[in-house]
């Protein structure tokens, strides 16, 4: 496996703090995000490398393994366990290899090869199967896309994976795709892919759980005399009756017009609408006179 310098990919020093890594990652992720570079394959590849580098360097345990084992960092735990086992004789009475001290790249690769790909003397040893590394990925989608079940294609480790995103997924929610992680060793099973979703804010609607919140402007005469108003929802437009003498800030609830409940067919939250009364401007002299008459009647 070719060594990948994650520090170089992010452009940070090996002594960079976690906050520095996080800051640089966010800046680069925004720059190379596929949504901003839809037809740029190099940007897509760079985005994947940036995510992979952040996955390693932002996690203290992963970073420690990477600094210690380099390109073989994903198998650091297996190496440590195997090195401990190699200090003792095998159960068949044969002599076990005993390694101690620090390992350079060649020593480590040779030792790893002897454990996982046959003995150094050329004899065939029993191969141990190890499960592949789990992958972590992040996916940004907008609120309106999260409203409906839809498909998207992710590029992970150079491979395109077609996934179905269920309606109602929440920001911060993580799902697992079994077997889409790193390859196993000696025929071991693949690891899994964990995808964390980030739902972008919407201009019109705010989401809280499965409920949606929005505001609707109505003119003064509709607020005073009553009437009808057409409201936009995420699954179409609906007409509502406005009661006479509706006050500014009045809230109404549309049951079942909110966000779909995750993996529950035909279940939805509610939509809450706050009315804002728009005061008239640029009144004519006649209109102003009528308001004066109304003010006199009110007093």
In words, what does this structure look like?
This protein is α+β, with helices and mostly antiparallel strands. Among the domains are: 135-200, Urease metallochaperone UreE, N-terminal domain (HSP40/DNAj peptide-binding domain), CATH 2.60.260.20; 206-298, HSP40/DNAj peptide-binding domain (Sandwich). It has helices at residues 6-10, 18-32, 41-57, 60-69, 76-85, 105-116, 143-146, 220-225, 285-298; strands spanning 135-142, 150-156, 159-165, 174-177, 193-200, 206-208, 211-219, 227-233, 236-242, 251-254, 271-278. Helix 2 packs antiparallel against helix 3.
Task: Produce a short descriptive summary.
The chain has 299 residues and is an alpha+beta fold. It is 31% helix and 24% strand. It contains nine helices and eleven strands.
Number of strands: 11
CATH class of the domain at 206-298 equals Mainly Beta
Walk across the major sheet and give the strand order. Answer: 6-7-11-10
User: What is the straight-line distance between the termini?
Assistant: 86 Å
CATH structural architecture of the domain at 206-298: Sandwich
Quote the beta fraction.
15-25%
Q: Could you give the order of the helices and strands?
A: HHHHHHEHEEEEEEHEEEEH
CATH topology of the domain at 206-298: HSP40/DNAj peptide-binding domain
């Amino acid at each position: 496996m070719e060594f990948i310098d994650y520090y170089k990919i992010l452009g940070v020093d090996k002594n960079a703090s976690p906050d520095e890594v996080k800051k640089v990652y966010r800046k680069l992720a925004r720059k190379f995000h596929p949504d901003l570079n839809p037809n740029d394959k190099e940007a897509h590849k760079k985005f994947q490398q940036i995510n992979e580098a952040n996955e390693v360097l932002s996690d203290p345990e992963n970073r420690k393994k990477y600094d210690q084992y380099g390109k073989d960092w994903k198998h650091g735990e297996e190496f440590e366990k195997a090195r401990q086992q190699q200090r003792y004789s095998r159960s068949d009475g044969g002599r076990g290899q005993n390694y101690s001290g620090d390992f350079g790249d060649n020593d480590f690769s040779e030792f790893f090869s002897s454990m996982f790909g046959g003995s150094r003397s050329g004899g065939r040893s029993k191969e141990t199967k190890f499960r592949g590394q789990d992958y972590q990925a992040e996916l940004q989608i907008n609120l309106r896309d999260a409203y409906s079940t839809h498909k998207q294609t992710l590029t992970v480790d150079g491979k395109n994976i077609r996934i179905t995103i269920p309606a109602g997924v929440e920001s911060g929610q993580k799902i697992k795709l079994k077997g889409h992680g790193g390859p196993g060793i000696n025929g071991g099973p693949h690891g899994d892919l964990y995808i964390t979703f980030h739902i972008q804010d919407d201009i019109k609607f705010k989401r809280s759980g499965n409920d949606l919140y929005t505001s609707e402007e109505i003119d003064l005469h509709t607020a005073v005399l009553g009437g009808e108003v057409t409201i936009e929802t995420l699954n179409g437009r609906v007409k509502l009756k406005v009661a006479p003498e509706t006050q500014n800030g009045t809230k109404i609830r549309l049951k079942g017009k909110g966000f779909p409940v995750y993996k529950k067919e035909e279940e939805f939250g509610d939509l809450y609408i706050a009315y804002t009364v728009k005061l008239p401007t640029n009144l004519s002299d006649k209109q102003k006179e009528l308001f004066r008459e109304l003010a006199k009647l009110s007093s």
